[in-house]
Design brief:
Helix content is 34%, strand content 17%. It is of the alpha/beta class and 207 residues long.
Length: 207
């Protein structure tokens, strides 16, 4: 059985305020503390590889985890944030009156950000990467992998394995520094955990 820990990057100053997209946004002080807590928690797990989106906030979250596990940190563009195109860097308040923004959030399967990518494309790259990792990754079929990425791509992957339509995927909460867990084996995929966090007590801290 292959285990996949889907970890959202820790907190930064755009969280809840706007679309950082693919900008090089660093973690804030609280986010750095979250990353260290994640590292202590994940050090208890049997993990054979650590991967991250190449963006700064995901790498800064993944580095303490890889260090705690004694594993190299690898990056892959398949774990990238959504390409938000012209919306990158805009606040949610600015986007509120944009009809394209409303259409995209009402029907993610049919719309895309101006100059950006669709959620169908995001889901395909995330699921493709996870399935390849289950077949070919370190540890073989019994590997266990930490993937540090972004909220919407993680939601898209969870929606696929849960059988949830993309148009409803915003019902899946993916908080900063949260851990969701997949298991993949010959019986098919199972979702073992969604949005477990150290902050709300749904994941026990390391002793």
């Amino acid at each position: 059985m292959t285990l996949v820990h889907l970890v959202r990057h820790a907190d930064h100053d755009y969280v809840g305020r706007g679309l950082a997209g693919r900008m090089a946004v660093p973690l804030n002080e609280g986010g750095r503390a979250q990353a260290e807590r994640l590292a202590r928690r994940l050090s208890r797990e049997r993990v054979t590889s650590v991967w991250a989106s190449p963006l700064r906030r995901t790498v800064e979250t993944a580095e303490p985890v890889a260090r705690a596990l004694g594993l190299p940190l690898q990056t892959d563009d398949a774990l990238q944030e959504v390409e938000f195109g012209a919306w990158t860097g805009r606040s949610f308040a600015e986007l509120e009156d944009d009809p394209d923004w409303r259409h995209w959030n009402a029907s993610r399967s049919l719309h895309r950000p101006p100059g950006g990518e669709s959620m169908t494309e995001v889901q395909a790259r995330m699921v493709g990467f996870i399935n390849r990792l289950a077949r070919e990754g370190q540890g073989g079929p019994d590997g266990a992998h930490v993937l540090v990425g972004h909220a919407d791509p993680i939601r898209a992957a969870l929606a696929y394995y849960l059988g949830v339509p993309l148009d409803l995927f915003l019902r899946i909460e993916v908080s900063p520094a949260s851990i969701s867990v997949l298991a993949l084996d010959s019986w098919g995929p199972r979702v073992l955990r969604v949005n477990g966090t150290l902050d709300d007590g749904s994941i026990a801290p390391a002793p």
